[in-house]
Structure formats: C-alpha cells, structure tokens
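Module 6 notes. Inverse folding takes a fixed backbone as the condition and produces residue identities as the prediction. Think of it as a translation problem where the source language is geometry and the target language is the twenty amino acids. Below is one complete input and output pair. Work through it position by position during the lab.
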C-alpha cells in the first residue's frame, strides 16, 4: 500500500513527501511478531508474581479466566481483521471507527504509552538479572543501571531506523532462540517437581483474602504477559495477505498460552510459595537454581536477556507503527506521518524512544520499579482493549455498510464480542483505582497532540461530546496528582 506524506509537496524533501510501499510480511513473520511480543519480560517474572498472590488452585482459576478472556480478545482481533479489512493499526483504528476521533486518539496514545512503559520493564529486568553478579546495578533501578539501559535503548533506535524488514527478520531469529530456554525450564521443573511441596502450595493458605481476591490479584500479571496478542493486527498494513492477520493472532496466542500457564504451575512444585514470593526477579531463574543448581540460574538469565531484547524490538516496532498510522489518519500531528525510504517512521520511533527514556529515569524514584511499570503497562492497555472489544460488539449487533460478511457467522461474532467486552471490563475493575488514576496522568496531557492535529486541519479542537471526555480525563488526572501528593497512592 502506498502512502503519501501530508506535510510537504516538495519531492526533494529527503523522502518526506512520498512514503514507500509498506514492507509485506508473511504469515510466519506475523506470527513470529505476535509470539515475539508476547514472550518477553513477563513470563520470567510469573512464579514470584503468582506466588505473592495465590496458590495452585487460584493460579489454575486465574489462567482459566485469563486464557478464556484473552482467547476471546484474540478472536476479536481475528474477526475484525476480516470484517473491517479497511482498518489498519487495529487497536487504534477500531476505537476510532466505533466511538469517534477523540476516543480513537486516546486508544492510540494509551496503547503507544503502554508499549513505552512496557519497554522500560525489559531494561529494568535485564539490569536486575545482571545485578545478581554486579551489585552496583541493584534491582535495575540504580543510576548505573539506568545509564546502561539508556545506552541499550538508543542502540535499538539506531538498529530499527535501518529498516523494518531487517528488524522483522532479526525478530524471527530471536523468537525461536528465546522460546527454547522457557520450554527447557518447564521440562526440568517437571522432572524435579516435589509432589508434597506442590500439595502444600495448593490452597494459598498463607495469604489473606478469599479465592476471588487471590485470583483478582493475579489479573494484571496475566494481562502483561498476553500483551502482544494484537501484534499482527497492529501491523496489518504490512501483511502479504489480509487473512494472515487473523491466523497469526490465533497461532501466536495458542503457541504461548500453555507455556505461560506451565511456567507458573510447575514452579509451585519446587519451592514453598512463600519462598517463591521472596525470590529476586527474574524469579524463574531462582526456581530453576533450586531445582538443578547454579547453572539453571545462569541458563534462564541468558535466555531472559535474549527474550527481552527480542520483545523490545517487536514492541518498539508496534508502538511506532501506531503513532505513524494515527498521524496518517490525521489524529496525530503531521510530523509523525513521515517515514524513510526504508519504510521506517523515524519521528514516531524517536518519540517512542524518548518516552521510554523518561519513564526509565522515573524508575529510580519508584519503590518497586519492575512491578509498578508492569502493572501500569497493563492498565494503560486496558482502555484500548476495551474499546476494540466494544467495537466488535457494536458491529456484531448492527453491521454498517463497510462491514464485510454477514449471515449466521455474526451470531458467533456476537458471543465472542460479549465475552471479550465483559473480560476487559473486569480487568479494569481488577486493576483498581490506583492504576486507573495514574493512567489519566498520561491521557490528559496527551490531549495537546490531539489539539495540534485539529489545528493543523483548521478544525475546532473539541466537539461538545469530546469536551465531556476531556473533562473526565482532566478530573481523573487532577485526582491522580492529589493522590500522589498526599500519599494515597505511591509509585
């Protein structure tokens, strides 16, 4: 698909006037991008995250709920790719098509911001892993750790700037390389599993709260590890065949769901859950060290670094893509719509790297940099996910003239859309007020970009309906600032 720059008619303007045809990606490459973006930092932190909240019973229920809910969400992206093939950059485009430009903008910005915050968790976890042998790096949030992470962050900026095709090819190789250590972990943990320890960890008796509260406490962790299920949809304009977008989404989801659940459950057979909850991140390394010795910790640590760097590559690509397509649709300022001859949206990529850098510095002032960034990433993603699911529900109930397909298939679409909408709404409840308020601290100031785009088009900044949405976001941000200032919530 050929796209044209909207801010210059000068053909000599360093490639800014006409963007090249989008690089076409195969089913395997799209699937690798989904798997690559899902298998990142989250899976290596699962044992501790779950053990701090619940036992085996709660974990099984949590994975059943999360697996079903995320499968429905994966089906939503699969079906929307077929029903509305005219929409690119899925998560953002679906919100705009269903609920207007301002909520579409919020979806684009929220999804992009969540990717940037998520990228920070990768660097924090890498530095925490190395910090086990280099104490100066601490838990990944010391000055030296942030400095080294910053070097890596900008090195990746330069790599991706060379071209989408080259970065996507590297991602395929890294995806294969990082899945192997995780599978080896599961097999070794199964071999070393102690039935008595596993039985003692069954009910989570050491933790306060009902089984419902235990399951609720794990929900944000499951959201984080499943982020990326929409990866093929986000990159849909690059697909060689449109139908591959949906196939890649389902293949990617199925490929990793059992692995994620297995990593969590087998860990309960190695150590008492109280000890797992106290392990240093990446907790998967500590579990395998207990099972097979020091070499297991080293093995997982190396696998983590490869895995996280691959996920960082995939997420940076997707984050920049969302800003780029939003700018092409005139929902972001025009400067973000520029791309190079290698099909790289450099201004969008630069903004992505800058926000990640800012959040990386903030981690030095957080009580628990990794957990906070992980939960905030999940919370920021929930609104875009909810809007996408609600759009699927909307066109399942009342298809419009641009909806492809129909007939009996739409009854299945309705069931999927209802379940996905209920699930994402529950996740917002599970996230709690703290992360909803902190999310508004990102959303409200971002409106400046929306106003810039409207002014470039000579349009009134807000309609009456959009003013109501603006007021809600500003009030939420003010409450968030007050809550931070008086200590009601903390980083």
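Target side of the pair, the amino acids:
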């Amino acid at each position: 698909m050929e796209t044209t720059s909207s801010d210059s008619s000068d053909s000599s303007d360093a490639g800014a006037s006409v963007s090249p045809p989008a690089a076409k990606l195969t089913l395997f490459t799209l699937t690798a991008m989904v798997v690559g973006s899902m298998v990142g930092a989250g899976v290596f932190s699962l044992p501790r995250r779950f053990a701090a909240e619940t036992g085996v019973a709660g974990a099984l229920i949590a994975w059943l709920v999360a697996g079903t809910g995320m499968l429905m969400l994966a089906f939503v992206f699969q079906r929307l790719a077929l029903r509305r093939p005219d929409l690119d950059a899925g998560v953002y485009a679906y919100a705009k098509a269903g609920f207007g430009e301002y909520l579409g903008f919020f979806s684009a910005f929220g999804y992009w911001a969540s990717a940037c915050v998520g990228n920070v968790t990768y660097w924090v976890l890498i530095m925490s892993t190395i910090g086990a042998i280099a104490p100066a790096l601490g838990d990944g949030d010391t000055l030296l750790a942030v400095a080294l992470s910053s070097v890596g962050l900008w090195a990746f900026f330069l790599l991706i700037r060379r071209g989408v095709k080259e970065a996507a090819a590297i991602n395929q190789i890294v995806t294969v390389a990082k899945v192997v250590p995780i599978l080896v972990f599961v097999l070794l943990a199964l071999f070393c599993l102690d039935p008595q320890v596993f039985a003692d960890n069954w009910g989570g008796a050491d933790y306060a709260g009902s089984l419902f509260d235990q399951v609720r406490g794990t929900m944000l962790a499951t959201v984080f590890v499943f982020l990326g299920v929409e990866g093929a949809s986000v990159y849909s304009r690059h697909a060689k065949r449109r139908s591959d977008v949906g196939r890649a989404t389902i293949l990617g989801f199925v490929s990793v769901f059992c692995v994620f659940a297995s990593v969590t459950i087998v860990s309960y057979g190695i150590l008492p859950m109280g000890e797992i909850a106290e392990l240093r991140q990446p907790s998967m390394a500590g579990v395998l060290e207990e099972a097979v010795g020091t070499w297991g910790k080293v093995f997982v640590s190396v696998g983590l670094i490869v895995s996280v760097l691959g996920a960082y590559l995939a997420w940076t690509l997707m984050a920049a893509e969302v800003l780029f397509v939003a700018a092409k649709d005139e929902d972001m300022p025009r400067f973000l719509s520029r791309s190079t001859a290698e099909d790289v949206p450099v201004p969008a990529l630069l903004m992505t790297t800058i926000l990640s850098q800012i959040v990386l510095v903030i981690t030095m002032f957080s009580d628990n940099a990794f957990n906070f960034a992980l939960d905030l990433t999940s919370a920021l993603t929930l609104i875009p996910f909810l809007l996408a699911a609600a759009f699927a529900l909307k066109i399942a109930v009342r298809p419009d003239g641009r909806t492809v397909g129909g007939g009996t298939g739409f009854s299945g679409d309705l069931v999927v859309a209802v379940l996905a909408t209920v699930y994402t709404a529950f996740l917002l409840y599970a996230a709690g007020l703290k992360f909803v308020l902190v999310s508004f601290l990102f959303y409200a100031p971002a409106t400046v970009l929306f106003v810039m785009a409207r002014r470039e088009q000579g349009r009134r900044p807000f309609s009456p309906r959009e003013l109501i949405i603006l007021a809600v976001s500003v009030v939420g941000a003010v409450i968030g600032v007050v809550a931070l200032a008086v200590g009601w919530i903390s980083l």
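Reference fact for the lab report: The radius of gyration is 22 Å.
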